[in-house]
Amino acid sequence: MSVNPSTPHIRPPAVADMFYPGSAPVLARDLRRMLAEIPPVSGTRAKAIIAPHAGYIYSGPIAASVYSPLAASYGSIRRVVLLGPTHRVAVNGLALPAASAFATPLGVVPIDRQAVAAIEPLPQVVVSDAAHAHEHSLEVQLPFLQTVLGEFALLPLAVGRASATQVAEVLECLWGGDETLIVISSDLSHYLPYAAARQTDSNTARHILALDAHIDHQQACGATPVNGLLLAARQHDLEAQLIDLRNSGDTAGDRSRVVGYGAFAFNEKPCHVH
Description:
- By secondary structure, this protein is of the alpha/beta class.
- It contains ten helices and twelve strands.
- The protein has helices at residues 24-36, 56-67, 113-119, 129-133, 136-139, 141-149, 164-174, 194-209, 223-235, 248-251; strands at 10-11, 48-51, 79-85, 94-96, 101-104, 107-110, 125-127, 153-159, 180-185, 190-192, 238-247, 258-268.
- Strands 2, 3, 4, 7, 8, 9, 10, 11 and 12 form a nine-stranded mixed sheet that branches.
- α7 (164-174) packs across α9.
- The longest helix has 16 residues, at 194-209.
- The protein is globular and about 45 Å long.
């Protein structure tokens, strides 16, 4: 099924007032506050990031740690390729929306039609509005992106049953240059006691830093897109950097059953002149 651009429609926010504030002024204030708490860093801009996708009260500060440095690229990143797991609707492959734009309380983000056209012929790419309609894993990243990048076009993919190789093939088609940022939305372990979660998540982080594309769904709910990025990062000789690793017991939850959150950046290796 192909996307018909002659019947545009906008996907409205599905989890505003649940995962993050539905009021634009309150949302903007909360984002500014979280981003301002991150110390400034110098260095190369990330080509790709992994960010968590829980409610902002739980994972917002961890997401802010990897989004804050991108503010230095305000206006220069013009396309965001955003992949996250499906939580509500099962789908085979990687699902594009039929929508022409996604809305949040902060405004409307257009879908990148050229990017859609580039990957639509791939057999693992499908179109499913149902997969996107109530999915939070992609939506919660958008207000951060709108805040740190300004205007950009979006290529959102809800990742269902697919292989890491199929994900990497899609990323390869969309890789682009400095104008393109890749964002993978994933939380880490789910509902372990605090100490066990810390141990599990630090082990997962070691695998991610080694670009070891064998993360399973107990380690990360977005394991499939994460593994696809790790394959692509290895292909492009990127290095992974751990920015933050915490869990809901560190932010806003009790410690008997926690969800793990990691923030990772993937950069080109610095050139060493001999």
